[in-house]
């Protein structure tokens, strides 16, 4: 880039910041005289024309952008330019046709993932007695990538038929973000959208048990996020922050529901990556994996078995033999114990929490009942596999023993009346 062109771009950006849009437009016109193929200048020019309410001229500018990106194979960016046109004129037939052409140009389409195996049917539990989980109805979890990682670009909707693809592109909203702008905040409830990155870069962060912020992943063009809360309707499990200027497609639950209703394969794609994202988050944040390196974490997680569990189901029952080490991948569970003729709630378990370890360490019956409070996903390391794992990873055995000891002290304090569990946490009595 020549010094003249660089100075022109700097001056144009300053004029936009000052709100001098007419002068900024002149600057971008001069930039395009110097370099007619500068797609960013065409895009900025379209943005200015749109703000000046000169719609037809803005459409011409965005059309050049869409054509350039499409020719370069940058299909998501081309789609973004088409979206800008449709926001000005929802009936712009040339752009609707261009979206159809972009669909036809898609290459390297990902095959739909293999269907998730379904467990065999089980006899219905007796009334008032939630059924315990057995090994027969738990299936092996698929391999998950270690974390933190660079998640791959995911062509989320690449298997949609053409008409569904066009309809979705037209219904999606676009959002432009500045660096450090928060898109999703951990713990938030009520928002019902997932996002696809058209251009830019974001980071996904989560607060660990120690209170430290952990970067789970960096996502770039084509990646998607937010599907976890969209599917589970649970509070957001991680924060997402823009690392640079970023353009997103936003897909609401209502829009996605319409697509899934007509094209069920979309739900299977989302669920597959939903589970993989949960596993990545778990390996990065759960205390169970803290003593292990990335390769050891990956090897260990592959030994767990996974199952979706409905609300109000017993995972472990006080007095029963211990049958494995459990991790709560998603959802919420209650820990309770009999005392003085009534059941005392000791704790609530959240995603990433481990349970069932005490009976494995002491070879004694389970000391408390664990019951799901809402639909959950549970990982289980069967007792036999547990013995094999700790024999090769003694540091893991020592770490889990420490966790169990801390839990015993807390439970003893609750039993002695020194602590009391509440929805907000443990309270000193």
Average pLDDT figure: 78
The structure class reads: alpha+beta
Sheet with most strands: strand arrangement = 1-11-18-13-16
Main sheet record? 5 strands, antiparallel
Q: Please give the share of residues in helix.
A: 40-55%
| Structural shape | elongated
Ranges where pLDDT stays below 50 over 5 or more residues in a row are 107-120, 124-155, 424-429
N-C termini distance: 69 Å
Kindly estimate the percentage of residues that lie in beta strands according to DSSP.
15-25%
Rg is 27 Å
**Beta strand count:** 20
Query: Count of helical segments?
Result: 14
Folded structure, characterized:
A hairpin with a 5-residue loop joins strand 6 and strand 7. This protein has 429 residues and is an alpha+beta fold. The strands form 5 sheets. The protein has a 5-stranded antiparallel β-sheet with strand order 1-11-18-13-16. A 5-stranded mixed β-sheet has the order 2-7-6-9-4, with helices on one face. It has a 4-stranded antiparallel β-sheet with strand order 3-10-5-8. The chain has 14 helices and 20 strands. Helix 5 runs antiparallel to helix 6.
């Amino acid at each position: 880039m020549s010094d003249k062109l660089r100075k022109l771009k700097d001056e144009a950006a300053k004029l936009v910041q000052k709100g001098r849009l007419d002068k900024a437009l002149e600057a971008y016109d001069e930039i395009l005289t110097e370099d007619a193929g500068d797609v960013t200048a065409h895009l900025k020019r379209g943005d200015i024309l749109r703000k000046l309410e000169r719609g037809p001229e803005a459409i011409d500018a965005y059309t050049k952008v869409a054509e350039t990106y499409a020719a370069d194979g940058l299909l998501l960016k081309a789609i973004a330019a088409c979206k800008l046109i449709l926001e000005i004129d929802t009936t712009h037939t040339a752009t609707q046709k261009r979206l159809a052409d972009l669909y036809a140009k898609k290459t390297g389409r990902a095959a739909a993932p293999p269907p998730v195996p379904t467990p065999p049917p089980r006899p219905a539990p007796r009334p008032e007695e939630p059924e315990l989980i057995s090994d027969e109805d738990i299936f092996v979890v698929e391999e998950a990538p270690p974390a933190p990682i660079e998640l791959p670009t995911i062509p989320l909707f690449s298997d949609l038929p053409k008409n569904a693809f066009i309809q979705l592109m037209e219904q999606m909203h676009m959002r432009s973000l500045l660096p450090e702008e928060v898109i999703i905040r951990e713990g938030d409830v009520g928002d019902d959208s997932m996002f696809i990155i058209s251009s830019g870069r974001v980071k996904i962060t989560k607060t660990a048990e120690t209170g430290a912020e952990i970067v789970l992943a960096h996502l770039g063009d084509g990646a998607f996020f937010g599907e976890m809360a969209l599917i589970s309707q649970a509070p957001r499990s991680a924060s997402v922050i823009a690392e640079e200027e970023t353009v997103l497609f936003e897909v609401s639950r209502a829009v996605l529901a319409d697509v899934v209703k007509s094209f069920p394969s979309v739900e299977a794609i989302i669920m597959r990556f939903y589970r993989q994202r949960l596993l990545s988050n778990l390996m990065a944040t759960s205390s169970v994996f803290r003593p292990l390196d990335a390769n050891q974490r990956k090897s260990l997680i592959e030994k767990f078995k996974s199952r979706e569990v409905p609300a109000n189901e017993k995972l472990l029952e006080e007095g029963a033999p211990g049958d494995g080490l459990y991790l709560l991948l998603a959802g919420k569970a209650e820990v309770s114990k009999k005392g003085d003729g009534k059941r005392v709630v000791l704790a609530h378990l959240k995603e990433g929490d481990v349970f069932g370890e005490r009976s494995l360490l002491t070879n004694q019956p389970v000391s408390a009942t664990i019951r799901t409070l809402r639909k959950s996903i549970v990982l289980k390391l069967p007792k036999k596999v547990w013995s094999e794992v700790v024999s090769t990873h003694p540091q893991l055995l020592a770490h889990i023993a420490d966790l169990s000891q801390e839990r015993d002290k807390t439970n003893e304090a609750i039993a002695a009346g020194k602590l009391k569990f509440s929805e907000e946490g443990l309270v000193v009595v």
